[in-house]
Specification:
3-stranded mixed beta sheet, Ribosomal Protein S8, Chain: A, domain 1, alpha+beta, 50% helix
Length: 162
């Protein structure tokens, strides 16, 4: 199944689910290389997002599963967003990570964040990766997997451990 066919399948599935929640909402689909973006817009779509995006993450996972079951390809990423939630969540996480990293640098003490989804952990890792002097590691097991932001260890510190 081509990326365009996968995009059509994803859009059709999300549109069907969304219509059950809000028949007035609109769904659009875009393809960016090997990423299919399905966007839902409308009023009062909080139920589709859920607390901390949990419902949205479930909708995205179901959409991915439907697309994979209908085709052979598994290399295409599917991203579902409702009312711009993902962009707002990413922005908020980036700001939060910068504040926590500043605290970690000031105190020298690692900081464990709350458990979060894989997509949120990626934002944390990517953002912290741009901040000099800190590093991140993921710990725990899903669904309780979390990120620790800690002062970056120097080469001599790492070699001293071996």
């Amino acid at each position: 199944m081509s990326v365009e066919q996968q995009a059509a399948t994803a859009g059709e599935f999300v549109r069907g689910v969304v219509e059950l929640f809000d028949p007035e909402a609109t769904t659009s689909v875009a393809v960016d290389e090997d990423v299919v973006h399905v966007a839902v817009s409308g009023d009062d779509l909080g139920l589709l997002v859920g607390p901390r995006g949990v419902t949205l993450d479930a909708l995205q996972e179901l959409t991915r599963t439907v697309v994979q079951r209908r085709g052979e390809e598994h290399g295409t990423r599917i991203v579902v967003d409702v009312a711009g939630f993902r962009a707002r969540r990413t922005s908020a996480l980036e700001s939060f990570v910068r504040r926590v990293a500043a605290d970690v640098l000031a105190s020298g003490t690692p900081e464990a964040l709350e458990p979060m989804s894989a997509s949120d952990r990626k934002v944390v890792h990517d953002t912290a990766g741009t901040i000099e002097g800190v590093e991140t590691i993921s710990e725990g097991i899903d669904p309780r997997r979390y990120v620790v932001i800690r002062p970056r260890r120097t080469v001599s510190q790492v070699q001293g451990e071996s």
